[in-house]
C-alpha cells in the first residue's frame, strides 16, 4: 500500500479538497520527501510531537519506546530529507551533534537553545531576516539560506548551577 509511482515534482501544488479528516496530519510534509512511506510518516509525526529539539538518536529512542520497527539509519535519512525540504530547524549541541525540531510551515524560525537542558525558546528574528534579505538582494543572489544558532544556559540551569556551587 501507499506505493504509487507518482513523482512529486519541485514546487508545491496545493490541491483543492484537502481538508478531509481522512488524510494524515503530516501527509503534505511527507509528500515533500517524494514517495510517502509509513516510516516517513512515523518519523515526521514523532518529530512534530516533540516540543523541543531532539537528536536523531533521542527521536529513535522515543519511537522504539512506542514500539517502532524503524531503524536508526532510516531516522537519520528522513531527518536529512526533511531538513532539505525545509521542514526542520537544525542546531548543534555542545558535542556538535545535530538536533532537530519540526518546522510546521515554510517560514523558518530561530530559537534560543539551552546547552544544558535542551530547552528552546522561539525568537523574533525579524532583524536577521531583513538583513539576510538585504544581503541577498544587493549581491543578486537567489535562494539564499541562512543558519543562525543561539545557544546558552537558561535561567533554570543557571539557578540550579549556582545553588549547587
Ligand atoms: Zn537549561
Ligand atoms: Zn532566519
Explain what the structure shows:
With 165 residues, the protein is of the alpha+beta class. The protein has 2 domains: 24-105, Arc Repressor Mutant, subunit A; 109-165, 2-Layer Sandwich (Dna Ligase, domain 1), CATH 3.30.1490.190. 38% of the residues lie in helices and 15% in strands. A 3-stranded antiparallel sheet has the order 1-3-2. The model is unreliable at 1-22 (pLDDT under 50). Bound molecules: zinc ion (2 copies). Residues 108, 110, 125, 128-129, 146, 148 line the site of one zinc ion (ZN).
CATH class of the largest domain: Mainly Alpha
Main sheet overview: 3 strands, antiparallel
Number of strands: 6
Give the class from helix and strand content and strand pairing. alpha+beta
Order of helices and strands: HHEHHEEEEHEH
Mean pLDDT value: 82
> Which small molecules are bound?
zinc ion
The name of the CATH architecture of the largest domain is Orthogonal Bundle
Radius of gyration: 18 Å
Query: How many domains in all?
Result: 2
> How does the overall form come out from the CA principal axes?
flat
Strand content: 5-15%
CATH superfamily grouping of the largest domain: Winged helix-like DNA-binding domain superfamily/Winged helix DNA-binding domain
Helix percent reads 25-40%
Q: Count of helices?
A: 6
The name of the CATH topology of the largest domain is Arc Repressor Mutant, subunit A
